[in-house]
Amino acid sequence: MKKRPGAAILFSGGADSMAVAIHYLRRGRPVALLTCYNGAESMMEHAQHRAGLLQKRFRGLVAWEQRDVKDLFHRLAIQHLESDIKTYGTLVCCGCKLAMLAEAILLCRERGLRELADGFRREQIYYPEQTDEYMTPAGRLARSFEIRYAHPLYEATDADVPRMAAEEGLPPVALQPSCLFAFNRIRPSAKIRQYVNAKLPAVRAFIKKRLATVK
């Protein structure tokens, strides 16, 4: 039987990233779970614990690793935080997600993966990174490196997500690292697409530089 292609998943260990991992694993697709550390998080061990649960349930199909993205995160979102807030609104989480996306694209290229996914959902569009204004330019960035950026549970409901874990005998409760910038919700004045587009050249240059070093 031909082995099904794998996918990389941005993985915090929370309910949504657990559910999206299960979505792929139920289809017999191996997953490479990527947890990113941005320098403003604690309890990172929660993500590893949750990945371990998936590894036990779906033996041989789950890989996990943690990577440090704090330098790029700082460059994108922290270094010019004051001026960015004045220009675009409080969108530091979009900067963080772009740093994570860059590392995930690199992981995909390293492992020959052509699909990358996250646990974004429409019911959570109060988070700026889960809006079309973020996802569309982020998707274009991924495609420019021959990676499909997917959001397979975008239409899933708050009830669907814990049910998927429970059906696999996994704890349905959320358990993930805690971030200083968590629960940063959209302000009416936020200019999400403009912020993302302003940061993309630095993200693209970062990826190309890293890729050049491994050739």
Which helices and strands, and how do they pair?
Layout: E1 7-10, H1 15-25, E2 31-37, E3 41-42, H2 45-57, E4 62-68, H3 70-78, H4 81-88, H5 92-111, E5 115-117, H6 132-144, E6 148-150, H7 160-167, E7 178-179, H8 192-213
Helix pairs in contact: 1-7, 3-5, 5-8, 6-8
Notes on the structure:
There is one protein chain. This protein is α/β, with parallel strands linked by helices and 215 residues long. It is built from 8 helices and 7 strands, in the order βαββαβαααβαβαβα. It has helices at 15-25, 45-57, 70-78, 81-88, 92-111, 132-144, 160-167, 192-213, and strands spanning 7-10, 31-37, 41-42, 62-68, 115-117, 148-150, 178-179. The strands form 2 sheets. A 5-stranded parallel sheet has the order 4-2-1-5-6, with helices on both faces. The chain has a two-stranded antiparallel ribbon with strand order 3-7. 40% of the residues are buried. The model has no long low-confidence stretch (mean pLDDT 92).
Descriptors:
five-stranded parallel β-sheet; two-stranded antiparallel ribbon; 8 helices; globular; alpha/beta; 7 strands; 215 residues; Rossmann fold
Note the main sheet.
5 strands, parallel
Q: H/E order of the elements?
A: EHEEHEHHHEHEHEH
Alpha-carbon distance between the termini? 32 Å
Task: Detail the poorly predicted runs.
Answer: none
Strand order of the largest sheet: 4-2-1-5-6
The computed structural class is alpha/beta
Could you please say which CATH topology of one domain applies here?
Rossmann fold
Q: Name the shape in a single word.
A: globular
